[in-house]
Structure formats: C-alpha cells, structure tokens
C-alpha cells in the first residue's frame, strides 16, 4: 500500500541518471566492476579456463576496448558482463547489480533491461525490415514504439532505410541496424563483440564512428576486438592473454574513429 507520497516505489521509477558528464567527470560512477572473475568450462581433462581471476573497473561513460588474440577470453569476459553466463568464481557487478548472485531469471531481466549487444555477424532477421528488426527487440522491454525505434535508426544514420530488408543493405548498414536495435531500448551498457570483424576498413570506420557518437552521448560502450588499431579510440584499453587481464591502460586523448586505420 502506498501512502501520501507522490513518489513511485523504486521498481516503478526510471533508472537513476546515468548520463554522467563523460569520462573523468566529477560525478563519475562505476558501470562495471569485476573482482577475481573466473570462468571455467568443462570438467577434469576437458577443463578450459576461459577467464582467470579478472579484475576490472569501468567508470560510466567510457569507451573501452578489450584487446587480445583469438582464444584469450574476450568473448567470455563480455558474456559475463552481459549476464549471458554467470562467473564460476568471483564477482561481476554491472548496472548496479551483482550478477554473480542472480539466477537465470535475474540475468534475463538484467540483459533485457540494461544491456544492448552487437555481434560480428549482425544477426538480423532476413524477413523483417530494418525498422521491424529494431522494434522486435525493443518490444521485449516495453519500449518498442515506432517513434523510439525510428529515432534509433536515425541515430545510426539510417532514417531513410527503415523499410529496407537486410539483403537490400550493405554490411556496414546492416551492422548499423544491429546497433540501432541494441540502443532502441536505451541500455545503460552497449557491448560489442568484434563489431567490425566482418567489415572492410571504410565501412568499419563508419560503424566505429556511430559507436563513438553513442559514447559521446554518455553511454558506456565496450568493444571487443583482436584489432589493435581500434585501441586508439578508447578511453581505456584492456589487454587480455590466455584468459587473463594482463594490462589496463588509460588513454587521455582518444582518437576520432576516422583516424583508426588497419
Ligand atoms: N562454451 C564453451 N565451452 C568450452 N570452451 C569454451 C567455451 N567458450 C569459450 N571456450 C574456450 O575459452 C577460451 C576463451 O574463449 P573466448 O572467450 O571465446 O576467446 P576470444 O573471444 O578472445 O577469442 C577458448 O580457449 C575457448 O575455446
Ligand atoms: Mg571472441
């Protein structure tokens, strides 16, 4: 029962303001925190230590690049932060929630409400238009109205292409639709796994520009890549090797996406 106050209970209120004044701003808060996070697959002889005791802290509003060779644990780390899987040991806190303590339903709700995912292969539904692809996912969160979805397409420069099917779009355009799909629900965290891995240099840069713009609006963006060139546009570069975070470097002057070259 609610008493005289006009204020809705916490569960009905909007998320707390998360558009901090950008990296290193005065009101900096932590978006992601890992403490001794480990992930082991399989048992006995088949045991694989995909992630070993990872420590990481990402302030809100940063663009972070996770760099490492194939098999070094990048996707595993991103999947823990995205609540796709729980850690085997250690702590993973993101979006204000301790993911290591959530059950599967809790992680599903966390993913739905807090995380936007972008993958290497865009994973669009071929029989749906660009706008329908965006709405499909946003609807799961109750934020699937046409205007919001159209605005997300406009934010990635595809306002005029909403009626096109994936096969009618270039690879770079399809990836931008996938980014629009990820941001239409206004997630606190945007997690991108090799987002330019299937694109040529020019097209890839266009996608990085979109990601940098979204970060410029205050959104926390994590980009996983094996492409070291992309590190130059990050506020923070996390280097991984053999399942370990081996280095975290802060970059005071991130380069614009246009200057990234490979
Ligand atoms: N579901 C899984 N089952 C077993 N081993 C896995 C699984 N996912 C990843 N691995 C292993 O964990 C290690 C790290 O994988 P991954 O995080 O995908 O690396 P990266 O993204 O850096 O290429 C690899 O040796 C990989 O084979
Ligand atoms: Mg990977």
TrEMBL record:
Residue ranges of every copy of the ABC transporter domain listed in the record = 32-262
Might you report a single GO cellular component term? plasma membrane
Superkingdom to which the source organism belongs:
Bacteria
Keyword annotations for this protein, in alphabetical order, are:
ATP-binding, Nucleotide-binding, Transport
Where does the UniProt annotation place the signal sequence?
none
- UniProt feature coiled coil, ranges: none
- What GO molecular function annotations does the UniProt record carry, in alphabetical order? ATP binding; ATP hydrolysis activity; transmembrane transporter activity
Q: Where is this region: Disordered?
A: 1-29
Q: What is this protein called?
A: ABC transporter ATP-binding protein
